[in-house]
């Protein structure tokens, strides 16, 4: 039991800080989605995609994760060589918070995938998409997919030459792809760590966190 408790404590001291970093990265990535071209102009005008404005990286992969990570990290380091602070109650709370992390990260993963698939909101030439004449604000890649089921995957994610259809904000397609892809990777890593910590918390309920037992 003593060896298991030692392993539980060390695992918490690794998982906690990793989740703190990932949660912070998730919040930063989602905030950047709201400021394409490093300007607040498009946010003020309301020309930000609905998927970015849903801020899944803030509430799903960010705040929820940071709250849980703070508790996990505090318990892990406080119990590095203690006598009774690593209680089974703390282990139980850790497991519960990790389940919330798992749910939040899963929501962020799904919504980020939707945002990446739909493509950005941009000012584009509608004539090129056969949806009228002139330029307008809209979702050119999503509109194309409604006309041709395979167009979105083929012309958007797999063909960078079509990215130039978006005239404003400058470089919005690459901005959208990079940041939503980052959110996907971060939330996937958070789900893995949360799953590990759920198991770790369950072991802590049985053996405690303290290495000094």
TrEMBL record:
Q: How does it sit in the membrane?
A: Multi-pass membrane protein
Q: Keywords of this protein's UniProt record, alphabetized?
A: Membrane, Transmembrane, Transmembrane helix
Superkingdom is Eukaryota
- Primary localization class, coarse: membrane
Q: Which Pfam families match?
A: L6_membrane (PF05805)
Query: Which residues does UniProt assign to the signal peptide?
Result: none
GO CC annotations? membrane
What protein does this entry describe? Transmembrane 4 L6 family member 1
Q: Which organism is it from?
A: Antrostomus carolinensis (Chuck-will's-widow)
Could you read off the lineage of the organism from its UniProt record? Eukaryota, Metazoa, Chordata, Craniata, Vertebrata
């Amino acid at each position: 039991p003593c060896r298991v408790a030692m392993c539980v404590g060390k695992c918490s001291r690794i998982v906690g800080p990793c989740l703190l970093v990932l949660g912070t990265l998730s919040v930063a990535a989602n905030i950047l989605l709201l400021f394409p071209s490093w300007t607040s102009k498009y946010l003020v005008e309301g020309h930000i995609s609905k998927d970015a404005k849903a801020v899944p990286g803030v509430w799903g992969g960010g705040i929820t994760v940071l709250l849980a990570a703070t508790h996990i990290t505090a318990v892990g380091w406080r119990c590095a060589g203690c006598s009774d602070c690593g209680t089974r109650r703390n282990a139980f709370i850790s497991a519960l918070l990790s389940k919330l992390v798992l749910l939040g990260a899963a929501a962020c993963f799904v919504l980020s995938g939707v945002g990446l698939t739909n493509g950005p909101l941009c000012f584009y030439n509608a004539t090129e998409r056969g949806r009228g004449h002139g330029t307008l604000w809209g979702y050119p890649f999503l509109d194309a997919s409604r006309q041709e089921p395979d167009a979105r995957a083929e012309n958007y994610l797999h063909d960078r030459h079509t990215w130039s259809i978006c005239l404003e904000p400058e470089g919005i397609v690459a901005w959208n792809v990079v940041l939503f892809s980052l959110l996907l990777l971060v939330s996937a890593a958070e789900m893995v760590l949360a799953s590990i910590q759920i198991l770790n918390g369950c072991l802590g309920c049985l053996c405690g966190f303290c290495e000094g037992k």
